[in-house]
Amino acid sequence: MVYYIYDGSFEGLLTAIYEAYYRHQNPEKILSSDSIQDNLFIQHVYIKADQEKAERVYSAIVHKISLAAAKKVLYAFLSESPDAATAIYRYLKLGFKLGKSVDSALADPYVFRVHALHKKVSQEAGKMLGLVRFRLLKNGIFYAPIEPDFNILGIIVPHFKRRMSAHDWIIHDLKRKIAAFYSQGQYIIVPFELSGALPLDEEEFDYQTLWKEYFQNIAIQSRINPRLQRQFMPVRYWKHLIEKPGTHDKA
Amino acid sequence: MDLHTKLKILGAAAKYDVSCSSSGSSRRNRPGGLGNASLPGICHSWSDDGRCISLLKILFTNRCVFNCLYCVNRATADVPRATFTPDEVAQLTINFYKRNYIEGLFLSSAVYKNPDYTMELLIATVKKLRNQYHFNGYIHLKVIPGADPLLIAEAGKYVDRLSVNIELPSSQGLQLLAPQKNRDSIIRPMEFIHSKILQTREERKLYKSTPLFVPAGQTTQLIVGATPDNDLKILKLSESLYKRFSLKRVYYSAYVPVTQHPNLPAISSPPLMREHRLYQADWLLRFYGFKADELLDENQPLLNTEIDPKSAWALRNLHLFPVEVNSADYEMLLRVPGIGVRSAKRIIAARRYSSIDFETLKRFGVVLKRARHFITCRGKFYGERNIDELTLYQMLKPSSSQSSGAKPSSEQLTFSSLYPHLFQPQDFHTVITGEM
To answer: Which of A83, B6, B347, B397 lies at a C-alpha separation of 20 to 30 Å from B214?
Structure first.
């Protein structure tokens, strides 16, 4: 039994799929190097990421299956789920056989899994578009910390680029220690960590208070329903929400 | 009066307005401007009552010359009053928006001095936002009943959505509770907005530069349970509003007893379950191909509060079932209790490739607990045999432990997963809530 081990990057995964095809091997699983466990009966094949091979696989997905499939694969990958790589591999294998109709083959468990992962990731990304909270810093930059379940930073950044094009801003994924920096029409995503608190603009405190007060006053007392609130806005996201207790920045 | 107090008063005063959706418009940002609209809409937070907060929902003022009995801001009510200036509203909107607290502005108002005067103030505010602050985010403006059509036409150029509140489902209700409003002053602006939207759509086909007019369409809302009007009447009304004026949504709001008056019903809590069932029926009208007459009739003018309207319909039409999931057409699949738009589309897509077995149905999100009584899968029937309507009714009813935990609004989650918006090609699977 053969497992392919890739370096955890998207290119690495695509390279592994390339190798599986050209070596005529049928790996039982494809795993990222940080999620392997030793087992005597399993042969581990380490795959080195190769930009050129990855690009060939990517363009094959777009041309032989569909752009939508490429997007599903990327989103499923961003879920960082341990079984994502294997599901993507099987999904693509079937996809190269069926073409774009692979997305109708929902009775296949791997196709369904890729769809499910894609949905989870895009749902969180969609939710995050609303839950990002910017704070205005002293230097005029808007800064927002987030801690999403999935690696969705790259998905949400273009939205804010369109919306806040005339401002400078940073969205910081504290969990993955990466941040998107935007200024004047361009952005980059780089590894980033903060050592201390950032100095906030004077008027920031006033607007945070206004928002908190508004939030408290908009609820209808005879309809209070904390369970429903948590269903839509899970508690794990509250940490960085201004309107939730304990997140208000102190002057 | 400082801004904090004003926002408290005028935010709290606007909370009974149900609509909060920010969907339907794809207004773009301009160079140097701020904001854009997102077609499926974005929710930014959820308040303690579980309703989504998408727009900064405020009244311009709560000083009112009208005296509608059901309203907290009626002229004779003893409540603190406040009025914003256009600049205060614009500043708040811009600064909340930049921090990503909100998706835009929902500006409504009490009738200050007279309808035209109020409408002019509202227009001045949105003009300021668009022209002076270069704001391109979502704006939803409430039409003040009785305002001049010219003012409505002017407002429509700047906003994404307009809404005129129907308030109560019948003109007798209006006469009794809101004597200064009449059916005409509500229906006429709706008609006007509708024809103007159609006109703009035609003109834009010829000249791309024709300015937008209310790109996200119009909505309305009505209060449920303040008058004796039954569900059949309400659904018929909604049906005709969707048909005649192509309304995007009719919002139902359970009457919250804010005051006591001999003309008002004496209830202790808002009829939330009734509101929930009306929303379910509304969805059946819009996305499931049902007609109001199929759901209710004169002998049975009220929606069953124990089971959902689709199950109730299926129980009355048992002769149509069971249907074979591998061959039934889309319209029929949609009518099976437990199958929603999402699962019906999945079934249609998947069976083109291979026939579907019972296990797969579960993965597709079909609620088999309900659906199994109404379908066959590869010819096999999975429900109970030889049971009568009454037993089936008992089985479809949520068990008591469930119904006590599941408050009406918490069911809205399952309900919301049925939205067909999710199938529009778009970047994000936004969870579209009952509030949209």
So the answer is: B6
Indicate whether A79 belongs to any domain: yes
Taking only residues 201 to 220 of chain A, the set having a beta carbon closer than 8 angstroms to any beta carbon of chain B reads 203, 207, 209-211, 213-220
Residue A250 belongs to a domain: no
Output the CA–CA distances (angstroms, integers) from residue B399 to B24, B307, B367, B394, in the order listed: 38, 11, 15, 9
Mean pLDDT by 10 residues, chain B (436 residues): 93 85 90 92 93 94 92 90 96 97 96 94 97 96 93 96 91 88 89 94 91 93 90 94 93 85 83 93 95 92 91 92 94 95 91 88 90 92 80 77 40 32 35 32
Question: Number of structural domains, chain A?
Answer: 2
Give residue A68's pLDDT band: very low, low, confident or very high (50, 70, 90): very high
State whether A112 and A217 are in the same domain: no
A159 and A66 within one domain: no
Residue type at B148 in one-letter notation: D
The rounded distance, in Å, linking the Cα atoms of B72 and B82 is 14
Are residues A119 and A157 both part of a single domain?
A: no
Chain B residues close to A207, C-beta within 8 Å: 95-96, 99
* Cβ contact B151:B123 at 8 Å: yes
Q: Would residue A248 count as lying in a domain?
A: no
Q: B residues 291-320 near A, CB within 8 Å?
A: none
User: In chain A, whose CA is at the least distance from the CA of B271?
Assistant: A223
CA distance B221 to B254: 11
Contact residues, B window 66-125, toward A, CB-based 8 Å cutoff: 92, 95-96, 98-101, 103
| Nearest residue in chain B measured CA to CA from A142 | B99
Specify the pLDDT at position B424.
33
What class does CATH assign to B3-272? alpha beta
The Cα A152–Cα A175 span in angstroms is 11
What pLDDT score does A247 carry?
A: 58
Q: Please, are residues B5 and B83 in contact by the beta-carbon 8 Å criterion? A: no
Task: List the domain range (segments joined by +) for residue A102.
Answer: 2-124
Q: Which of A106, A141, A237 to mutate to test the interface with B (most CBs of B within 10 A)?
A: A106
